[in-house]
Amino acid sequence: MLEFSWRDGGDWDAAVLDYFASGERVAATVLQVARAWFGDLDHLGSLLDFGGGYGRVTRFFAAELGPQRVSSSDLLPGAVAFARSVLGVGGFVSSVDPADLRPPRRYDLIYAGSLFTHLPSGRFDRWLERLLAMLEPDGLLVFSVHGEELLPPEHEMPSEGFFFEPSSESHELDHAEYGSSWITGPALRRRLEGVGAVHRLLPRGLCGYQDLVLATASAAVTADGDVDGRRRRMRALPIDPGARCQIESCTLSVGRRAGREAATLVLELSGWAIPGAADTRVESIAVLLADPPDGQVQSLGTLDAGQMQPREELVEPLDLDAAARPGWSLRVALPVPLRRTAALLVVEVATGPVDRFDPVGPPRADEALRTVVWAGALERLLHHTARENFLRHRQRVYELAEIIEAMKQSFFWRLRRRWFQLKRAAGMTEEDPDGPPITATDRRPPGRARAGTETQEGRR
Ligand SMILES: C[S@@+](CC[C@H](N)C(=O)[O-])C[C@H]1O[C@@H](n2cnc3c(N)ncnc32)[C@H](O)[C@@H]1O
Q1: Ligand 1 close to Cβ of residue 51 (< 6 A)
Q2: Which among 38, 60, 86, 283 is most buried, taking Cβ atoms within 10 Å?
Q3: Which uninterrupted H or E stretch holds 407?
Q4: Ligand 1, atom 24: nearest CA belongs to which residue?
Q5: From the CB of 73, is ligand 1 less than 6 Å away?
Q6: Contact indicator for 146, 154 with CB cutoff of 8 Å
Q7: Does ligand 1 lie within 6 Å of residue 123's CB atom?
C-alpha cells in the first residue's frame, strides 16, 4: 500500500503521511460501524483484519481495542509475521482458495478492506460465503468494493455487472487471482442475497472512494432467526462516513501591510465539500497550522456551512440536490516567518447528523466527525493543487480534441473541406480547413481517472 501511494504521487514523505492518515480514517469508520452495531466497543470481543497486509489499518484497531482483541490474516506470510511481532496482534496465514482456510476461531467483526476490489468473479462469492461463515452469531462483515463509477473509462462494464482485469500493484501475487475488479450495485446485491446475507451498502463509504458494505449472515446461519429485525437494525445504524471534499485551488500571495515592516502571507483555498451520507451534513471547514519545532497547532480560520455556496456544475457529477451548497473558499493570514516546506498545514471538514440540534431526535454522538482532507507541508499543497489543475486542464484538452476529431468525420466537415480545396485551387485562400493537426501527445493517455485531494484512500 505504501509503495502504491509513493508511486502514485512520487513523494515519499507524502506517501508515508497518506499511509498512516488513511489507515486511521479507515479504522475510525469501521469502529464507528462497530459501535453502532454492537452498541459499545466493549461488546466487540474479537476483530479480524482479513487481508490486513502490513497493518496500515490493523495498527489503529489495536490502538483502540488493545492487541489482544485484534487478529490479522493475509496470504503473505511476511505480512502476518509483521502483524504478530510488531503490532502484537494475533495472526494466521490465509489461502488462495477459501476452502483451504483454517481460521483458529470465529470473530465478532471481520474487516476486509481493499481485498474484494482485487478478486476475480468466482472467488468473490466464495470468499463472501467463507467470511460470513466465520462470524460469531451476531457478527458483522465489513468490506469494500470498487463501484461501477470507479471503472476506468477505457473499460466497459459487462452486462453481469462485474469487471475483472488481471493486473494489480502486487509483485508477489498471481494477477489471475489478485487483479482489480469493479462491481455494480445491483450485481453486488444479487451476490449478497445469493449467499444469504443481510446487508447495507454505503456508496463511497470508505474515505469517499470505495463503497463500503456491511453484511451479516441470515437466519440460516445465526441463532435468532429474525431476518426482518436484522434488516431494520442494519438500515437504522447511524453511520457518518465523513465528508467528501476536494481542494481545487490553493494560492499564496505575499504583501506588505501599510505601516508594517514585515511581509504578510495570505493563503487562499477553495473547493467543494459534501456529506458522505444522506442523514449527515457538513458543519464547518477549518484550516490549522503546526510549525515545528514547538509544534503548537494554531487555528488559522474556520468557515461555517452557512457561508458555503451553490455550485451548479457539481450537481450532476456529484449527484447533489439542486439546493445543495458544496462550494467553499477560505482566505487566511499566515504567520511570518513561516517555513513553507516544514510547517504542517491541515484542512479538515466537520460533519454531523442532520438532527444533531433536534431536541426530540434520537440520541446521537455529540462530537462532530472531522475528516482530514489535507495534512502536509504548505509547499506540497501548492504543488499538488497546481499539478491537479494541470491534469484537469489537460483532460479537458483531450476531450475537446476527441470532439474535434469526431466533428471532422461529419458530412458537414467533409463538405467544408471540399469547399476549401476548391477555393485553394482557385487561389482564393491559403487557409487549411482542418487547422493544425492534432498530435499524438494531445490524445488521451491510457490510465485511470484521478481523485485529486478528494481522498487519500482507495486508488488501489
Ligand atoms: C490492497 S491490500 C490491502 C491491505 C490492507 N487491508 C489495507 O487496507 O491496507 C490487499 C491485501 O490482501 C491480501 N490478500 C490477497 N489475497 C488474499 C487472500 N486470499 N486471503 C487473505 N489476504 C489476501 C494481499 O496480500 C494484500 O496484503
Answers
A1: yes
A2: 60
A3: helix 378-408
A4: 51
A5: yes
A6: no
A7: no
- Nearest Cα residue to atom 5 of ligand 1: 52
CB of 114 within 6 A of ligand 1: the answer is yes
Q: Please write the tens of the pLDDT for every residue from 231-262.
A: 888 888 888 888 999 999 999 998 766 666 66
Q: pLDDT by residue (tens digit) across 24-47?
A: 989 999 999 999 999 999 999 999
User: In what helix (H) or strand (E) does residue 8 lie, and over which residues does it extend?
Assistant: helix 2-9
Q: Which atom, in ligand 1's list, is nearest to the CA of 123?
A: 19
Residue closest by Cα to atom 12 of ligand 1: 51
C-alpha cell recorded at residue 84: 504478530
Distance 191 CA to ligand 1 centre (A): 21
Look at residue 448 and tell me whether its pLDDT is greater than 50: no
Query: Rounded to an integer, what distance in angstroms lies between the CA atom of residue 333 and that of residue 253?
Result: 10
- H or E, element range at 348: strand 344-353
Among residues 40, 36, 2, which one has the least CA distance to residue 22?
2
Domains with residue ranges and CATH for the chain: 2-239 (3.40.50.150), 240-460 (no CATH)
142 lines ligand 1 (CB under 6 A): no
Nearest-CA residue for atom 26 of ligand 1: 53
What is the residue with the minimal CA distance to atom 9 of ligand 1?
56
pTM of the model: 0.79
* Greatest CA separation for the chain: 90
The pLDDT confidence band at residue 450, using thresholds 50, 70 and 90, is very low
Separation of CA 119 and ligand 1 centre (Å) = 10
DSSP tally for the chain: helices H, then strands E: 10, 16
Cα-Cα end-to-end distance for the chain? 8
Which pLDDT belongs to residue 343? Answer: 86
